[in-house]
Amino acid sequence: MDKQKLVGSLPKFGAKEVMSEVCEACQLGKQVRHPFAAQTIHVSSKPLEIIHSDVWTTKIQSIGGCKYYVSFIDDHTRKVWVYFMKHKGEVFQHFLNFKIMVEKEKGVSIKCLRSDSNLTFPICCNFLLQKQQLERIKIANLNVPNINNNKYCSLYLKA
């Protein structure tokens, strides 16, 4: 507005002598916020190479009586699938349904299922071992402060 001469007598915020006369709120209002760095870090190079999973709960049940949720997130596409559950024991059945659906849809197999959840893995490990579909298991530290469980577990599935 000042450059177009629409408003007169606006202070010049670049000059040091003017800055001492302008109130703090006006100075803060003129600060420019720099954008966040545009970085997208993908560990995977193709869809379904790594699927992140987590089980979570709410204090209040949904109208349908669900109190638990399991989410599956494709590391490459960032697509999210959420399944609602009445009981924690439903995690494995939802994983099987999810696995069948996405592998059929994409035409490729899930390579790695990763989670910090203690609920997802014992049951999945047992099933995948019985079906001889599990290639290896990796447990690693996240090194992230202030989270409940600093470990995540990765199940690498056979193609």
Explain the overall architecture:
The protein is α+β, with helices and mostly antiparallel strands and 159 residues long. The protein has two domains: 34 residues, no CATH class; 108 residues, Nucleotidyltransferase, domain 5. Helices cover 23% and strands 25% of the residues. A six-stranded mixed β-sheet has the order 3-2-1-4-6-5, covered by helices on one side. The model has no long low-confidence stretch (mean pLDDT 76).
Radius of gyration: 25 Å
N-end to C-end Cα span? 63 Å
Structural class: alpha+beta
Strand content: 25-35%
CATH topology of the largest domain: Nucleotidyltransferase, domain 5
Task: Supply the CATH architecture of the largest domain.
Answer: 2-Layer Sandwich
In which order are the strands of the major sheet placed? 3-2-1-4-6-5
Task: Summarize the SSE layout with pairings.
Blueprint: H1 16-19, H2 24-29, E1 50-57, E2 68-74, E3 80-85, H3 91-106, E4 112-115, H4 120-130, E5 134-141, E6 151-157
Parallel strand pairs: 1-4
Antiparallel strand pairs: 1-2, 2-3, 4-6, 5-6
Descriptive key words:
159 residues, six-stranded mixed β-sheet, Nucleotidyltransferase, domain 5, alpha+beta
Summarize the structure.
With 159 residues, the protein is α+β, with helices and mostly antiparallel strands.
